[in-house]
Design a protein that fits this description.
The chain has 4 helices and 7 strands. It is an alpha+beta fold.
């Protein structure tokens, strides 16, 4: 389950503290200001995304939705706000509580159904070549010796004076 951090309630407490001062000045009228921190606390507790074997369940302040894995076509990462799933009917579904910094938790929870956008996929030929190179390097290495690095890959940036 991916949800808003519990630390967000600290902001609700500070807002509650700030609302109290006007309330003490005019309690008969400004008591309604306490509804703002209360609504914010309910929003923090209710907004979440649950990833399961059957699909994704989203829950926001006023609605809930289940999305089957068969309906998911892709993932959109907006500049601001929650991540969005692109669905088979060409609509988008927002994932409450899943922002860009929680993308790795979503990828891990989906068990590979949502691919990691930061991993560059290898084609079949490149994957075979990489395995062959590793196998040859391991065969040529003496016991207890590390495999040599590629030429020019010694961890230094080279001579900066030239």
């Amino acid at each position: 389950m991916i949800r808003l951090p519990r630390l967000a309630h600290l902001g609700v407490f500070l807002l509650l503290f700030s609302v109290a001062f006007p309330f003490f000045g005019a309690p008969k009228v400004l008591w309604v200001l306490f509804a703002i921190p209360l609504a914010l606390a309910v929003w923090i507790e209710r907004s979440r995304t649950r990833v399961s074997e059957s699909g994704i369940d989203t829950r926001s302040m006023f609605s809930s939705r289940h999305i089957d894995w068969a309906d998911v076509r892709g993932l959109r990462i907006p500049k601001r706000g929650w991540l969005q799933l692109h669905l088979a009917d060409d609509s988008d579904a927002s994932l409450p509580g899943v922002s860009y910094d929680r993308l790795s938790a979503l990828v891990e929870a989906s068990n590979g159904r949502i691919p990691d956008p930061f991993v560059e996929p290898l084609d079949a030929d490149a994957a075979e070549d990489a395995e062959d190179i590793e196998a040859v390097a391991d065969e040529n290495a003496a016991p207890g010796e590390q495999t040599p690095k590629a030429e020019g890959d010694n961890g230094t940036e080279g001579d900066k004076n030239s």
